């Protein structure tokens, strides 16, 4: 089920962070979102928390959960699939 959400999560990331010139296909589903992968930072994380809540109705309750959720696109999709209302 979460695999079906991967394209949606990728589009949400691009839209929420206003990433210019990147397509969903260019984002590796298993690459880290922070550091080496997409190179996101803590402000990006906050924007993604808001976007996930708005788009999927899913809340990331604390930083420890966020660390796991934002490990990769696949981790985000799995979290959405498990916690969607």
Number of strands: 0
Averaged pLDDT: 93
Helix content range: 55-70%
Helix-strand sequence: HHHH
Major sheet size, sense and barrel closure: none
Stretches where pLDDT is under 50 for at least 5 consecutive residues are none
Overall geometric form: globular
Helix run count: 4
Structural class of the secondary structure composition? mainly alpha
What quaternary form is this? single chain
What's the end-to-end separation, in Å?
Answer: 14 Å
Strand content: under 5%
Computed CA radius of gyration, to the nearest angstrom:
11 Å
Spell out the blueprint of helices and strands.
Blueprint: H1 2-16, H2 42-56, H3 63-69, H4 73-83
Helix pairs in contact: 1-2, 1-4
Which short descriptors sum up this protein?
mainly alpha, 4 helices, 85 residues, globular
Give an overview of the whole structure.
- It is a single chain.
- The protein has four helices and no strands.
- The chain has 85 residues and is mostly helical.
- It is globular.
- The relative contact order is 0.22.
- The mean pLDDT is 93.
């Amino acid at each position: 089920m979460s695999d079906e959400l991967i394209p949606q999560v990728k589009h949400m990331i691009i839209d929420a962070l206003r990433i210019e010139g990147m397509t969903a296909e260019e984002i590796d589903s298993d690459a880290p979102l922070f550091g080496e992968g997409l190179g996101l930072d803590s402000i990006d994380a906050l924007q993604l928390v808001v976007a996930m809540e708005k788009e999927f109705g899913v809340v990331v309750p604390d930083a420890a959960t966020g660390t796991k959720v934002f490990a990769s696109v696949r981790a985000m999709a799995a979290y959405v699939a498990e916690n969607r209302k």
